[in-house]
Amino acid sequence: MRGVIVTADDFGLHPRVNEAVVLAHCDGVLSAASLMVGAPATQGAIACARELPHLRVGLHIVLADGYATLPHHAIPDLVDREGRFGSSMALDGLRFFCLPHVRAQLAAEIRAQFEAFAASGLALDHVNTHKHFHLHPTVLALILDIGREFGLRAMRLPNELHGSIGLRPWIALAKARMARAGVDHNDRVAGLALTGRMDEGALLAVLAQQPDGVLEIYCHPASVGTGPLTSSMRGYRHADELAALRSPAVAGALAASGAMQGGFADIFGHQARAAARVRA
């Protein structure tokens, strides 16, 4: 493996998630986190990230099953009165593609999320989407176009190890579009097939495979609490994922792999290239 990026998604969703990100980064193998800019605990997440200079933070764009950044009156065809997206991704994807007025609202919301991230003052390490909605060609095209203005340099390619054959055409299309846009991406990802169940055994099994190229392992850690974080996360084993990220066995396996560790900026040399431009 050339490099391994270990990412926590849904940063800002809940104080329990924020706490887990801090613990897993300071006392474990977590190298990156993907921030939900419209979530209830976003400001707490930003405050945590400012105290962790080596944690690479990216934008986790939410266009389904979560809260928007813009109010309902600005994007009435995307969200309910409370400003929340629905969970019918197939229907929404069809509307994004077929209806220009819906697509215009989608573009406005994507831009608003990039703007909210920029306002945090955090360096943009990467971009991905909640539930991998950027596999939709319209969503990806808008992210690549708008993201260019905000320093987008890397995205997640949800190319799961031993993943679904049915997703391969969409992954190939996304990969080609990212390449044309000059946007770096991981080669493989682990976390989709076992969403909410990336425990110690799962992480060790992934690292034992030693896939070529850059591997991103993503997970959903949270500290112990009562009840699910959201209705769609019933059954997620957040505390087991946090324990796995802090496991000495996982840290040992990662070190033994010899792979570079860090965020996208570290693996793909964005930090070094930026420093070189400053020196020039």
TrEMBL record:
Listed Pfam families: YdjC
GO MF entry, a single one: hydrolase activity
BP terms from Gene Ontology: carbohydrate metabolic process
The keyword Metal-binding appears for this protein: yes
Keyword tags: Carbohydrate metabolism, Hydrolase, Magnesium, Metal-binding
Gene3D superfamilies xref list: Glycoside hydrolase/deacetylase
The organism's place on the tree of life at top rank: Bacteria
Required co-factors: Mg(2+)
InterPro entries cross-referenced by the UniProt entry: Glyco_hydro/deAcase_b/a-brl, Hopanoid_biosynth-assoc_HpnK, YdjC-like
Residues annotated as transmembrane: none
Keyword Glycoprotein assigned: no
SUPFAM superfamilies, alphabetized: Glycoside hydrolase/deacetylase
PANTHER family: CARBOHYDRATE DEACETYLASE, YDJC DEACETYLASE FAMILY MEMBER
Protein name: Hopanoid biosynthesis associated protein HpnK
Originating organism: Caballeronia telluris
